[in-house]
Amino acid sequence: TVMAYDCYLAIGYPLRYTSMMSGRTCTLLATSTWLSGSLHSALQTTLTFHLSYCGPNQIQHYFCDAPPILKLACADTSANEMVIFVNIGVVASGCFVLIVLSYVSIVCSILKIRTSEGRRRASQTCASHCTVVLCFFVPCVFIYLRPGSKEAVDGVVAVFYTVLTHLLNPVVYTLRNKEVQKALLKLKSGSVSTQSN
């Protein structure tokens, strides 16, 4: 959400960007993100620790997440599940709405750019962020905001959004680098010429 806001300022107000996105603003945005994430996690962790557990102590999951742990509890977990659903629903939905609003404003700003080169460069600035947002939000919504659970499917999706999304981040953002693009073109033309020989 913060990156979408940053893109919005960079494209919508390019001449005022440095004054609007000052060091103080960056610190405030980063701190609020960390605090809201910590509060979100602390609430879920506190509720989970107040349950009584019995029976097996293994979860069918790749990492220690709240929904699989709730399946080990002997007590009624409906309140915990509702808090997780509402908490994640509000956070994810709120972030998603803010991202969509930022990108609607960005598209309107891009359409006002007179040159095709300017529109292309502005679009490229946002494309990598959109890719990462989709890779994170779609699996997250799939796991947390749907009724019922299929453990095998949840495990695969959990690996995607906890491991693959973060591995894709450097790849997606590195592909915007001109030197990397030139190296990839060189590698591609080298492999094409060796195949034709």
From TrEMBL:
Signal sequence bounds: none
Alphabetized Pfam families for the sequence: 7tm_4
Segments traversing the membrane: 82-106, 126-145, 157-175
Protein's membrane topology: Multi-pass membrane protein
Keywords per UniProt: Cell membrane, Membrane, Sensory transduction, Transducer, Transmembrane, Transmembrane helix
Chain ranges of the G-protein coupled receptors family 1 profile domain: 1-173
Classification via InterPro entries: GPCR_Rhodpsn_7TM, Olfact_rcpt
Main location: membrane
Protein location: Cell membrane
Record-linked Gene3D superfamilies: Rhodopsin 7-helix transmembrane proteins
PANTHER family found in the cross-reference section: OLFACTORY RECEPTOR
Protein name: Olfactory receptor 10G7-like
Provenance organism: Galeopterus variegatus
Upper lineage: Eukaryota, Metazoa, Chordata, Craniata, Vertebrata
